[in-house]
Design goal:
This protein has a single domain, classed as Flavodoxin domain (Rossmann fold, 3-Layer(aba) Sandwich), CATH 3.40.50.360. The protein is 37% helix and 17% strand. The strands form 2 sheets. The protein has a 5-stranded parallel beta sheet, with helices on both faces. A two-stranded antiparallel sheet has the order 4-5. Strand 1, helix 1 and strand 2 form a beta-alpha-beta unit. Helix 1 runs parallel beside helix 7.
Length: 233
């Protein structure tokens, strides 16, 4: 079985096309997950709506606890890291990480940045090798193949790779860097653009993204098919 971790980071709670002012990034993640589970009903899903229930922002106590070896942590440190431990455990368990996020002011929503800060953890998702000061970081989530699917929504157009506005997009590049740092390097990107323009520009982008999601689901399900399992033609 494949286990999916789905994160929705939009501040908008509804789905575009269904709810007034609904979220296009949520529409994409819902499409991906529903399409996946319709074809592989025995796969499992963990869902977090970090847009509506943001993770805590790290503070001094969190940093002190995180950088203290587990065997030396005081009870208050364990309590401080409890939320992080839960988020890290969800991530480690996932075979496919689905992140749905809008582009807010050229970067990721604050809730998603808070999640990143909670899961990049020494001793949990990254190891520090003191014997190699020039390159001390060892990614712990490179232990098995994991895929990340970044589903984004942008008000403007041209923010994708090679686009005229790509240099102003710090959402996907930031996520790819952070995920690669902890060992998740198989990253797939699909985006909707043109929300501000609307009309045919947006409609065509939504249609294209929908087709790309359907194709990606098929591609990943084949890639994650258990060895020795027969596949239908």
């Amino acid at each position: 079985m494949t286990h999916i971790l789905q994160l929705d980071a939009s501040a908008r709670p509804g789905l575009a096309g269904t709810d007034v002012h609904g979220s296009h990034s949520r529409f994409l993640s819902q499409r991906f997950v529903s399409r996946w589970l319709a074809q592989r009903k025995h796969d499992t899903l963990c869902y977090r709506d970090i847009g509506q229930q943001p993770p805590s922002i790290i503070n001094h106590d969190w940093i002190a606890a995180s950088f203290t070896p587990d065997e030396n942590r005081e009870p208050w440190m364990q309590e401080t890291l409890a939320e992080s431990e839960e988020l890290v455990a969800e991530l480690i368990a996932a075979d496919v990480l689905v992140i749905a996020a809008p582009l807010y002011n050229f970067g990721m929503p604050a809730a998603l940045k808070a999640w990143i800060d909670q899961i990049v953890r020494p001793g949990r998702t990254i190891e520090v090798d003191d014997s190699n000061p020039l390159d001390p970081y060892v990614a712990k989530l490179a232990d098995r193949p994991r895929h990340a699917v970044i589903l984004s929504a942008r008000g403007g157009v041209g923010f994708g790779v090679g686009g005229e506005m790509a240099h102003m997009n710090h959402l996907e590049p930031n996520l790819i860097t952070a995920l690669g740092f902890i060992g998740i390097t198989r990253v797939h990107q699909i985006a909707i653009e043109g929300q501000e323009a609307g009309g045919d520009v947006l409609a065509q982008s939504v249609a294209q993204a929908t087709r790309q999601i359907d194709a990606l689901v098929t591609e990943l399900q084949r890639a994650l098919q258990p060895v020795g399992t027969l596949q239908s033609a």
